[in-house]
Design brief:
154 residues, alpha+beta, Arc Repressor Mutant, subunit A, Alpha-Beta Plaits, 6 helices, 4 strands, 40% helix, 19% strand
Length: 154
C-alpha cells in the first residue's frame, strides 16, 4: 500500500471529481505552485495510483438500457473452476462489473442490456451456457439513486 500525505489526498479527491481540471486551478486551491502538482500527478500515474483516465457517460442520455444485478452460484468452487469462470466472464461486454463473493453466491455481476429480451438472451444464451454455472438470480434496477466513481481516501 502506498502512503499518501494530506496533499496527496486532497489532490486525488479533486482529480476524482474532475480529472481535466486545470493544474493552475488545483495549485491555487492547494496553495502550491503548478510544478509540484504536476510532479505528484506524474508520480500517481507512474506508481499506478491512477489506473486510467476515462469519460463517465450519462447512460440515461445516450441509451434506454437497463441494469441488472446477477448473483451466480457455481456447481464447483474449486479454484480452477473459479478461474475459468472469471476468464470467460471478462469476455462478455454486457458485464460491467464482476465480483467474487463470499457467502451464499459465488459471483455478483452488474449487467447492462438494451431491454428485457436482451437480458433473457444474455442470461440463458451466454451466462447459463458457461461451464460450471449452477444458479443465476437476477435483480432488476428500477431507479439509480447513486452512482459514484469517487473512491473515499479518508
Amino acid at each position: 500500500m502506498i502512503k499518501l500525505d494530506a496533499i496527496d489526498i486532497r489532490l486525488l479527491e479533486r482529480l476524482q471529481e474532475d480529472s481535466k481540471i486545470n493544474i493552475k486551478e488545483v495549485a491555487d486551491q492547494l496553495n502550491m505552485t503548478k510544478s509540484p502538482i504536476y510532479e505528484r500527478i506524474k508520480r500517481y500515474d507512474k506508481e499506478g495510483i491512477i489506473e486510467k483516465y476515462v469519460a463517465v457517460i450519462n447512460r440515461k442520455l445516450v441509451s434506454n438500457s437497463m441494469v441488472v444485478f446477477c448473483s451466480v452460484s457455481l456447481d464447483s468452487q474449486k479454484l480452477e473452476e473459479i478461474q475459468k469462470f472469471s476468464e470467460e466472464i471478462i469476455k462478455l461486454p454486457e458485464v460491467m462489473e464482476c465480483y467474487l463473493m463470499g457467502g451464499a453466491n459465488d459471483f455478483l455481476l452488474k449487467v447492462v442490456v438494451s431491454d428485457l429480451n436482451a437480458y433473457h438472451q444474455f442470461s440463458s444464451g451466454k451466462l447459463a451456457a458457461l461451464p460450471n454455472v449452477g444458479q443465476i438470480k437476477s435483480t432488476f434496477v428500477l431507479n439509480q439513486i447513486k452512482n459514484s466513481t469517487v473512491f473515499p481516501l479518508v
